[in-house]
Amino acid sequence: IGCNMRLLLGFVLSTFWLWEASLSRVYTNHWAVRIPGGPSEADNLASKYGFTNLGQIGGLEHHYHFHHSRVVRRSTFVTRGTHSFIHMDPKVDWAQQQLVKTRVKRHARSDPSYIHLNDPKWSNMWYIHCSDKNSRCRSEMNILAAWQRGYTGRNVVVTILDDGIERNHPDLVQNYDQLASYDVNGNDYDPTPRYDFSNENKHGTRCAGEVAAVANNSHCIVGIAYNARIGGVRMLDGDVTDVVEAKSLGIRPDYIDIYSASWGPDDDGKTVDGPGPLAKQAFELGIKKGRKGLGSIFVWASGNGGRQGDHCSCDGYTNSIYTISVSSTTENGNKPWYLEVCSSTLATTYSSGEFYDRKIVTTDLRQRCTEGHTGTSVSAPMVAGVIALALEANPLISWRDVQHLLVKTSRQAHLKANDWKTNAAGHKVSHLYGFGLVDAEAMVVEAKKWRTVPPQHTCTDQKLNASISSSGCRDQPDQQVVFLEHVVVRVLIVHPRRGDLEISLVSPSGTRSQLLAQRLFDNSNEGFRNWEFMTVHCWGERAEGTWTLEISDSPSQLRNPEVLVSWLSYFTVDLDGQFSHIFYTDFFFCLFGIVCVHVLASTMLLC
Ligand SMILES: *[C@@H]1O[C@H](CO)[C@@H](O)[C@H](O)[C@H]1NC(C)=O
Ligand SMILES: *[C@@H]1O[C@H](CO)[C@@H](O)[C@H](O)[C@H]1NC(C)=O
Ligand SMILES: [Ca+2]
Ligand SMILES: [Ca+2]
Ligand SMILES: [Ca+2]
Ligand SMILES: [Ca+2]
């Protein structure tokens, strides 16, 4: 019955209408009664009409709560009887039989916990959904809500750069994509892992399932982008060289949308290493030419060297502006033992923590399923899956748009860190978690309406010294920068013990990024030779003003004491940037500070 029809019926058959209206109401055996004559009068009136007086209604003077036990408890019609004469008693101002009202809990976001999928590990996927079996759940990443908006990764292609992928795994085979796969180690088109006794090469298969395991197929789990196509590039099971990396990063850039990598240099707390010349070019080619010019999306795990005091700024892959560097948090929002701190981390997902914290369930080698996937290795594929949902919502977003979306939508949520700060553009950011926990629903919603950012500008100034005044490319319109994205600081530092150095950058707006923390195990005397530190903490801030680079040196006992004597313990570099007119661009600057150890403290050679 349509609305007009119902109205018409209402006029014609008013009794029918009344009946229908009362159907939708549920009357209770409770009354609210207003009696000005005081509590004892209320008691008298209650007993006169057969009610029990349950007393004043909260703080409402003269209002009493009456209960009638002989009235049907939940009725769909107004009950008549002696009790109803209370409405006409002159001592009663007003009386109302109470109706049941529909009240819906106002969750901040929909909590569609009723979805049931027949995948046997579905109820263990605590980081995706809440269900009866899953009481301690964490639905803050809003993956279910993104699905409910209709995004499941359709037509998006993801590949896992790792030790191979079990392409015939029953939970992957349906989404497996031959064209998104290659075996760089074996030089063939079949990335099936090499099986050994220890199942050493299980990593890629585990990561693949997180992204695109098939949903509701009675097998194992449900991938975050369960309708995406998934491939694997086998490249870690052999000698990894610059060539191997460059090949892997450049496989079918027009076909593959997202490359997920959960590997990098040793997380031993003493290595400083990054992409070689070929891998660097592969990254640059990917972001320029990949996805038909929109740019390949490279997602990177920030590293597992937390226990070794490693700092992800010493990993040139996560530190690169071309990679989306992802961190991890435990189910309770605590810092996991393996977490590496640094200013280039963009966003975070749930992962494992202590032994009592839950881990991640996913597909495993030999057609199995595991509940034991851990570390930041978990987080890169999760974000790859979330980005796949966003790319389905808007396939035309660029590699930089994706980073903007993550900056905008990731949230502090309940993630604990003592360094959360709000930068001058209003973004909350931390060295542990970047902009916070990813939010899949917000990603798809924002992606859908996102207007692509203007071209990237890069302003490089090498005429810098200890007190830096930079023209900021004012005279070069195609390089001018107003609003910041990444800030890269390139340094050349000669130092007797690299692990003693701590470097921070303070933006004109006052946002402090720690570019490097001390590393206990880093005894190297190689210093930093044109190493690029990167921070995203100034994202959206204005570029112009004074940039201060602070380098502090805390000589440890491990250092040669003879060198110590003449060491410069602290210096500051001011950088002035004057930039104008262009929206959303990148700002590079370089500091060439050769600090010569064998010279006196006050002497610095700058070039
Ligand atoms: C999953 O599959 C079952 C049949 O095995 C079906 O009844 C159910 O509706 C499906 N669930 C979803 C969410 O599609
Ligand atoms: C550094 O640059 C500033 C301004 O460009 C200049 O005044 C200063 O003398 C320079 N300092 C050194 C040590 O060259
Ligand atoms: Ca092969
Ligand atoms: Ca499944
Ligand atoms: Ca590391
Ligand atoms: Ca990065």
From TrEMBL:
Keyword Lipoprotein in the entry? The reply is no
Q: Where is the signal peptide?
A: 1-23
Sorted keywords for this record are: Cleavage on pair of basic residues, Glycoprotein, Hydrolase, Membrane, Protease, Repeat, Serine protease, Signal, Transmembrane, Transmembrane helix, Zymogen
UniProt xrefs under Pfam families: P_proprotein, Peptidase_S8, S8_pro-domain
A Gene Ontology cellular component where this protein is annotated is: extracellular space
Q: Does the keyword Protease apply?
A: yes
Q: Which InterPro entries match?
A: Galactose-bd-like_sf, Kexin/furin, P_dom, Peptidase_S8/S53_dom, Peptidase_S8/S53_dom_sf, Peptidase_S8_Asp-AS, Peptidase_S8_His-AS, Peptidase_S8_Ser-AS
Q: Which residues form the active site?
A: 162, 203, 377
List this protein's GO terms for biological process: peptide hormone processing
SUPFAM superfamilies assigned: Galactose-binding domain-like, Protease propeptides/inhibitors, Subtilisin-like
In alphabetical order, the GO MF annotations are: serine-type endopeptidase activity
Residues forming the P/Homo B domain are 452-581
Membrane-traversing stretches = 582-606
In the record, the note on similarity to other proteins reads: Belongs to the peptidase S8 family.
This chain belongs to which protein, by name? Proprotein convertase subtilisin/kexin type 6
Provenance organism: Cyprinus carpio carpio
